[in-house]
Every structure is written in C-alpha cells, then in structure tokens.
Amino acid sequence: CGSGRRNPLRRLWSSISRYSEEAEEEVVGDHPAEDGSNRLINSAATEERKYGTIPARMYWLYLQSSGLRMVATFFVSALAQQGLRVYTDFWLQGWTDRNQHNEGELGRDVSGGQVEGDDVQYHFRVYALLSGLCIVLAAVSFPAGQRAGSNARRRLHRQLISSVLRNSIHFFQTVPLGRLMNRLSIDIAVVDKKIAATSQKLVQFVLLCLCAVLINSFVTPYFILLTVPICAVYWVVQKFYRCSSRELQRIESLTYSPIIAHFSETIEGVTTIRAYGQQARFTDTLFRRMEANNVAQVMLN
C-alpha cells in the first residue's frame, strides 16, 4: 500500500525531470553557450519555477486591485452579519428561558395570559428586526465581495495586457507562445473564477470559527483547554496541505505551457512535419508533456 502511494509521486517527478532534460537539450544543445545573446534567449525560453511561500506584496497587490473601500465594506458587513447572527441566537435563548420562567409563574398570576402575550410580541418583533438586519447585511456583503473581485479581475487583466503589448519584438521572439497563452488564459481564469469566491468563503469561515470558539469559551471556560491543542493540530495540517497544494499548482502551471507551445508550433509547421515524416516524434513529445501535466492535475484534484 505504501509503494502504491509513492508511485504517483515518483511518476510525477520522473515526468518533470524528463521534461526538464528535454527542454535543456532543446535550448542549450543547438546554440553555442559562449554567445551572450543566446544566453539571453535561453534564459527567456526556459520558464523559471518559483519556490517557497507567496510574497506578501502579491496579497497587497490583489487588495489594491480589488479596491480598499470595497474590501473594507465587505469585511465590515460580513463581521456585522456574523455578530448579529450570534446575538440572534442569544436572543432566542433568552426568549426560551423567559417562556419557561413565565410558565412556572402562570398559576400564581391571574393576568399571566395578557403579560405572556405582550412578552411574545415583544420578543418576536425584536427577533424579526434582527433577522431583517442580517438579511440586509448579507445583501450588502455578498455584492461588495463580488464587486471587489470584479475590480481585481478587470485591473489585473488590463495591467497584464498593457505590459505584454508594450514589450519589444525581441520579447515575443524569445518567450514561447505557450507561456503567454498560459498566463492570459489559465492564470487569468484562476483570478476570475477562484480567488474572489475563495476569499469570501475564507473570511466567512474564519468569522464563523472565531464566533464558535468565543461562544463556547464564554459558556464553558474549560473549552479553551481543548481549543489550544486542536488549533495546533489544525495549523500543522493546513501548513502541510498549503505547501503541497502550492507546489503542485506550480508544477501544473509549469507543465501546461509546453503543451500549448508544442501544439501551436505543430499546427504552424504541420506541412514541414509531414514532409519529413516526423509525425510520430511530435505526437510522442505531445503525449509525454500531457502525461506530466495530467499527473500533476490528478494529484492536485
């Protein structure tokens, strides 16, 4: 069973290493290393893989692109909504306790029916008001988060297009087309579809967990003794998961660009490939690059 779990990892790293060796042979083997211009072309053609955590300036860049005002509106409204939900639960608990207390004194008070009716109306009105405020805050929080994500998508895409179009001809001659298409398609799709929705869910989940911990600690102070080891275990697990997921996403992105580049180059030179009878070699190269990318995708998902 242990060897079965290690096989996908070994297969992934072997596929990545084979691709790296092939890329190095294609880039370095056919060009003299002593020429400075060739070294520049080789460094541009070989995609550099990043390691380690994501810099804090990237998070700040996304927040600035989202609009600090919209981000603040979303966070404040989400925090207020969660606080009202907690207060609504406390209000229902107080209402229940008061009803139980009134039922105990109903036999000793002749006018208990009228008092109980007024009390029910009062608690119901307050509960309806709190529920309405929660709905209003939810109607403010969700559109604000979506608006912030829309601002980030539009501004980041505009900056990316502007930076690409302002480059010189030398940039387009040295950088593979697959890398540009990968940045303008897959990476932008992640910004469009995943980051905004994931950020909203993360904020709501963190607020929910904090409220749950605070309420349980307030009701049962001994709960704090269990909270500390649980948080420590959770921190270790999420740190391992984030590191693994981040590296797998980088490998998936690194192995996707050569597929697009190879496919586009094959389409452009299909006449020459057929003339020299190299269909099998190009097909085999495409399949090997797709295999490396598929292994990373399977392990990531």
TrEMBL record:
Residues 75-301 form the ABC transmembrane type-1 domain. It is a multi-pass membrane protein. The keyword Nucleus does not apply. GO terms for cellular component: membrane. Keywords: ATP-binding, Membrane, Nucleotide-binding, Repeat, Transmembrane, Transmembrane helix, Transport. InterPro entries: ABC1_TM_dom, ABC1_TM_sf, ABC_transporter_C-like. The keyword Transmembrane helix applies. The chain crosses the membrane at residues 59-80, 126-145, 202-235. It is found in: Membrane. GO terms for molecular function: ABC-type transporter activity; ATP binding. This is ATP-binding cassette sub-family C member Sur. It comes from Culex pipiens. The lineage of its organism: Eukaryota, Metazoa, Ecdysozoa, Arthropoda, Hexapoda.
